[in-house]
Write a structure and sequence with these properties.
Elements lengths: L27 H5 L10 H16 L15 H14 L16 H9 L7 H11 L4 E4 L6 H15 L6 E4 L3 H14 L7 E4 L5 H9 L4 E4 L1 H11 L10 E5 L1 H4 L2 H13 L5 E6 L4 H5 L14 E4 L22 H10 L1 H4 L3 E4 L3 H13 L4 E4 L5 H12 L5 E4 L6
Parallel strand pairs: 1-6, 1-7, 2-4, 2-5, 3-4, 5-6, 8-10, 9-10
Helix pairs in contact: 2-9, 5-6, 6-7, 9-11
């Protein structure tokens, strides 16, 4: 957590993967072809950094094979499930957002989004961030991690507004846009200015946006470091108050180590550092230990959620057993059925190639659809999301990139 040191990155632990070829890295060439090479002389680093982002996105596209363990009896499995159920009871907060110290304008913004009660990670972390502490928070996807750091940052920004106030780093482009969307909605009352800096988009346009001194920068490490290296002293980050690492377990790996270190070098030592992750890896927990290079620095507040993320009561979950060679036939039948015809549908696939194959098949069958995967350029991804959100197409075929 020390401001003047690079976090020690460790390779991410991975399960056994199938021998299918990796889908990563194939879109970085098309991503950078349209950029102005005469304006910025860092095409090689751009390509490397775009590849890092796509590698991070495609790690989730591989199909994991879980090994069969015959040593566990049915009784032991049942006991373990019972223990997990006891630990993962639904969390019910006994405090309000106001009691956590949030201003009334933020509470009203949350009410407008139909959010009236804080989640567990928000209950435990918001007050600590407002108290000026470094925070390491662990919670599952969908638990409200983004609001847990966005709300206190916006409150502190409203008290002393200037740019650049906070930097949020994420491993993937889609997550960066998702976080920016939440900041924009919550910060509308204070006329928040935010910018997304990721690979696959024009660097000159991004440089112009950065020159306007936005309050919040949401970025992938590689592209932000490109701008830092190319702008010289023009991009002054010496007054940044908050550094956020979202999905910190993935950022603290060798993939992002160099870029993260380059960013930390230009940030002030006196700042708040907030780490949020779904998985508490050794690399993350190591930052909660005393730093011998800065013995006087207080230890961060660390909290790991133990409760389950509950689904809405109206959600119906079901599965169908069918022969694998009839899977596409049943899929097309369901999408054409009266029940699905007028509904928005997301189809998740394990690989980019599979997603593209399904897209072509459905289009040939007359079903309007669009795809979202890492082999598409960033502009193509944004266009696909816009079509789906706007109702132009009701079917989205995606890899795990779409879940973000």
């Amino acid at each position: 957590m020390a401001a003047n040191t690079t976090p020690r990155a460790r390779p991410a632990k991975r399960q056994k993967a199938s021998s299918q070829p990796s889908d990563s890295g194939s879109d970085q060439h098309s991503d950078i072809e349209d950029q102005d090479t005469h304006s910025l002389n860092n095409d090689e680093s751009e390509s490397d950094h775009d590849e890092d982002e796509d590698e991070a996105e495609d790690e989730d596209d591989e199909i994991n094979e879980a090994g069969d363990d015959g040593s566990s009896s049915v009784e032991e499995d049942e006991e373990e499930e019972e223990e997990e159920e006891e630990e993962e009871e639904e969390f019910k907060s006994n405090v309000t957002f106001s009691q956590l110290g949030l201003a009334s304008w933020l509470v009203n913004a949350l009410k407008a989004m139909s959010i009236t009660s804080p989640s567990e990670i928000q209950t435990k972390c918001i007050a600590e961030v407002l108290a000026g502490k470094d925070v390491i928070g662990g919670a599952k996807t969908g638990s409200g991690k983004t609001a847990a750091f966005a709300l206190p940052i916006l409150q502190r920004l409203s008290e002393d507004p200037y740019g650049v106030f906070a930097i949020v780093l994420t491993p993937t482009r889609e997550l960066a846009f998702q976080i920016a969307e939440q900041f924009s909605v919550l910060g509308k009352t204070i006329n928040l200015k935010d910018v997304v800096i990721v690979g696959g988009l024009d660097m000159m346009t991004q440089a112009i946006a950065l020159s306007k001194r936005p309050h919040i920068i949401i970025a992938t490490p590689g592209r932000l470091r490109d701008h830092i290296n190319s702008s010289g002293d023009f991009m002054n980050l010496s007054k940044v108050k908050f550094l956020v690492l979202d999905e910190a377990d993935r950022l603290l790996t060798e993939t992002f180590a160099d870029d993260l270190g380059g960013i930390l070098e230009v940030l002030p030592k006196k700042r708040q550092t907030l780490l949020f992750t779904a998985t508490m890896t050794d690399a993350v927990l190591e930052l909660a230990q005393p730093n011998p290079e800065d013995p006087g620095k207080p230890l961060p507040f660390v909290y790991q959620c133990k409760t389950a993320v509950s689904t809405v009561s109206t959600l119906t979950q079901s599965y169908i057993f069918i022969p694998s060679h009839l899977r596409e036939t049943y899929l097309a039948f369901l999408l054409r059925s009266e029940e699905f015809a007028k509904k928005s549908t997301i189809i998740f696939c394990g690989r980019c190639q599979t997603a593209e194959t399904v897209r072509v098949m459905l289009r040939e069958l007359g079903i309007a659809c669009t795809a979202l995967h890492s082999e598409m350029s960033q502009q193509e991804r944004l266009n696909s999301l816009a079509k789906f959100r706007g109702g132009i197409t009701s079917v989205l075929i995606a890899t795990d990139v779409g879940s973000r």
